[in-house]
Write a structure and sequence with these properties.
299 residues; alpha/beta; Rossmann fold
Length: 299
């Protein structure tokens, strides 16, 4: 299986400030590869370096087997990119902006035009509106169309769902799976664990500019905590709270909050013995997961 993205000790420094340090990645053909970490961990710096938007300080980065520094323009012909923040010419209509963008790619114009309209219809995007009149979510849709209309072989997504409502997020995930089935390899960067778990095959975890783990999504699921928050009618028996797998317990007379990793049946059996007023069980975002679970990896 061909390696689509390859980095070896890829490093980017901003003077004395940290960027990324010795990043080693290998993304295989046909994968949906997650790239996850807290905000400021180095995800966007890695992506911008891969795209040739910023130059590496040292190390190697190749896409489709070619060095990004020497073959950037031709490589970008095969890449679709959606940045975390999209900025466009405000006075242009969406359709004019997308047609202008399409001219940068060596792709048949009729196919690109057809694809543009298909994607706009799928995303419920009004192509006739000026960019300045679009909401943040609709500007994000313009970015999605722009990144996909030339049918790229590699799709790089940096926090792609910001601004999209839950229904449109589901449409977006379905679209990514469809693109993957078409043959596109996808690098999906996010700080939201749930998004990565539902879409990706493997994940690289970055913290403070360094890769701390590369795992299959099944391994990540098994190692994930959940956050339990309970409102109580009466104080909880301390003995019940010694259940193995409970960490970071915060307790008051009327509430409990803790992280849990372990057998779900044991957790629910313990909760059933409490006098509950309200209960929520949710997965942590990566900020919290990193703080409590990956701390040992960064040590």
């Amino acid at each position: 299986m061909e390696t689509i993205i390859f980095t070896q000790n890829l490093t980017k420094r901003y003077g004395k400030a940290r960027g990324i340090e010795a990043v080693n990645l290998e993304v295989r053909e046909g994968e949906i590869f997650g790239f996850i970490g807290p905000n400021g961990a180095g995800k966007s710096t890695t992506i911008r370096t891969l795209l040739g938007l910023i130059q590496p300080t040292s190390g190697v980065a190749k896409i489709f087997g070619q060095d990004i520094t020497h073959h950037g323009p031709e490589l970008r012909q095969r890449i679709g990119y959606l940045p975390s923040e999209v900025f466009y010419y405000d006075n242009m209509r969406a359709i004019d902006l997308l047609r202008y963008s399409a001219k940068f790619y060596n792709h048949p114009r009729q196919e690109t035009e057809k694809r543009m309209h298909q994607l706009a219809e799928l995303l419920n995007l009004d192509l006739g509106k000026r960019i300045d009149d679009l909401s943040y979510g609709n500007k994000k849709k313009v970015g999605i169309v722009q990144g996909l209309q030339h049918q790229p072989d590699l799709i790089i997504l940096d926090e792609p769902t910001g601004g999209l409502d839950p229904l449109m997020q589901q449409t977006f995930f379905d679209l990514m799976q469809s693109e993957n089935q078409r043959g596109a390899t996808i690098l999906f960067s996010s700080h939201i664990l749930g998004e990565v778990q539902r879409l990706c095959d493997r994940v690289a975890i970055i913290k403070e500019g360094k890769i701390v783990a590369i795992e299959s999504i099944d391994t990540l699921r098994k190692n994930s905590h959940v956050i339990v928050h309970a409102e109580l009618a009466a104080p909880a028996d301390t003995k019940l709270l010694k259940l193995p797998g409970i960490t970071n317990l915060e307790k008051t007379a009327s509430s409990l909050r803790f992280l849990y990793r372990g057998d779900t049946n044991r957790l629910t059996a313990m909760l059933a013995k409490l006098q509950l007023v309200n209960l929520s069980i949710e997965e942590p975002d990566l900020e919290e997961l990193f703080l409590h679970y990956y701390q040992k990896d960064a040590a």
